[in-house]
Amino acid sequence: MSNVERLQQAGLIQIHHPLTDAEIQSVNQLSPAEIDALISVRVKLGDEFFQRKVQDGDSHRMGTLLL
Asked: Domain range holding 20?
């Protein structure tokens, strides 16, 4: 599974906001430890935090990763 797929599965990258080729390349260059850390932050902040950001119109910024 690619880094992009892992982050999509974790809810950090919104599928309905496609990444550019450059963003995909950047994400896929992250180490497994970096991906794990991003997912950990997502889990610790929780669904409510991310749902609120999506509803407030920040989904592209917050949901498309914390790049």
From this structure: 3-63
Tokens of 60: 């592209």
Q: How far is CA 52 from CA 1, 11, 13, 15, 46, in A?
A: 28, 13, 15, 17, 10
Whole-number Cα distances in Å, 29 to 24, 41, 50, 59: 9, 19, 24, 23
- In tens digits, the chain (67 residues) has pLDDT values of 999 999 989 888 888 878 899 999 999 999 999 999 999 998 998 888 777 755 555 555 544 444 4
* Domain total in the chain: 1
